[in-house]
């Protein structure tokens, strides 16, 4: 509390004690009561101020911690998004990926333009792309499919493209060169194509076939 204010009020009370007549005594009693009221108000005010300052001090001490927690949460959120969302890639393949596509197209006797159309739709040429379903890499191979095709690193562009092109070749052979059925099987699996005896009535698959075909024939 403010010591100077308290000292001044005590001195005022002492001055009032020097009065000796009855009238002054009555006045001193009134003054004493007034002094007591003022003293109580001062003490209350000082206590409130001390409490307020203490709260400010607590908040000041907590702010660095709150800022740290916010940073950690934001960092965690960014980390999660980065790991689950594909990073946008360029509009076309890099020279190294383009060379891989050319060799895969020649090996499996498929048009390079078709492989490009599939990769554009699957990952937009981002070798690190991962879908919510777990498909990975340039041609978005599912784990079981990748293992069956002998892939050891699904994010390796050469392994991914060669395996994906081989699988697309298998689908083309299975459906006697029918591009739409082969693309539908690549997207939804040959089991669904056989089950529905054609393109499965899945919105995603129907859009997939239409977009890849449009890109290929453009």
Quaternary organization: single chain
- Order of SSEs: HHHHHHHHH
What integer value in Å does the Rg equal? 40 Å
Low-confidence stretches: 18-29, 58-89
Shape: elongated
Q: Which whole number gives the mean pLDDT?
A: 76
- Our count of helices gives 9
User: What level of helicity do the residues show?
Assistant: over 70%
Please count the beta strands (DSSP E, at least 2 residues each).
0
Instruction: Kindly estimate the percentage of residues that lie in beta strands according to DSSP.
Output: under 5%
Please summarize the sheet with the most strands. none
Distance between the ends: 84 Å
What would you call the structural class? mainly alpha
What does the model show?
- It is a single chain.
- The termini are far apart.
- The chain has 218 residues and is mainly α.
- 72% of the residues lie in helices and 0% in strands.
- The model is unreliable at 18-29 and 58-89 (pLDDT under 50).
- Helix 4 packs across helix 9 and helix 7 packs across helix 9.
- The protein has nine helices and no strands.
- The protein has helices at residues 3-16, 22-84, 95-107, 112-123, 143-148, 157-174, 179-188, 190-196, 203-217.
